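Ticket #4471: structure output looks truncated?

Reporter: J.K.
Steps to reproduce: submitted the chain below (107 residues) through the standard prediction queue, then opened the result file.
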Amino acid sequence: MALLGLVGTPPLAVFVGKLTTATAAWDGGHAWLAPVVMLNSVLSLFYYLRWLAPSFSQPDRGATALPKPNGSAAWPTAVAALAATASLVIGISAGVLWTVVDGIAVI
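Returned output as attached by the reporter:
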């Protein structure tokens, strides 16, 4: 989920950041920078696919299974799930969050 976020996949939080950056560059008179931001996202996809592709491939038949984590080793899974959920929630609710932040900044 983190790698998809780094690419800028909607509706994750990094997508909102990349879109905001490209929009600010366009509105600020640096229109050439907006396509550079988007091209960088596309190019990074090829790098991250090298990491994502093995996640979806079939395991080797001769490979040994990894041991299942005990209770004390389960916290990395919980942290990863929490981070993925937070990225998704922030990405979906970005419009509301921008309104709140903009209202606080005006005060």
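Triage note (M.O.): checked the attachment and the full token line is present. DSSP finds five helices and no strands in the chain.
Status: closed, working as intended.
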